[in-house]
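Morning F.,

Quick status update on the modeling queue. The single chain you submitted on Monday has been processed. Sequence for confirmation:
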Amino acid sequence: MTTDSEYSGRVQYSYKNKDCTLRISDLRERDSAVYEFIFTTNQEGGRYTGSPGVTLSVTAGLQVISYSNRLECRSSCRLPNNPSYVWYKNGQEIQAQTSYYLNDVYYLDSYSCALQGYKDFPSPSVCVQGESCYRVTYTDRSICAFKGSSVDISCLYNSYNYPDKSTVWFSRERNHGGQNPPQPEDLSTDSQYTGRVHVETERGFSTLRISDLRERDSAEYHFKFRTP
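Structure tokens below.
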């Protein structure tokens, strides 16, 4: 697998006291397969395969299920005992640590969840009722770009109070100093991005373009809109 282009840069082996481990990073759904371990000896015919192997199923991850009076964060994979959860309402983290969200829910709000310690892998946002609610959906969740090049980061968003009071792209790594709690800084006014950021926003769609990319631009970027 270390020579398979499909797994390039994503596979590591470790061997210790006859304990062999395969690590696959940046999992993709097409990685779902049966994996087997083979070892050879210096004896004639000394080639042995561990069969049956290990079946790996890679899913899209968590999903939020909406009931009449509560929300559930559900996974198709087996989770550790008593995991802690993180809940988000309209993209903002809220206080809740169990797989169920029992507080009052508003039909225009969107909700998503993640496992504590894995906030970079939240579930897709869902509406409480139907498909009409406030939410932001990113065209790509992970982008790789070359230093010195340009990149477009786009999203679709649902807003029911057009025109919006404000829209902004930001990175949580870049905050206004001196504010409590710290407030994300609009990239259009951030000195680190001066002359390198261009934003185009139409109703329901926005694109952030960053040009002359630098290594320190590596970050997670978010879009936020405010209603009147």
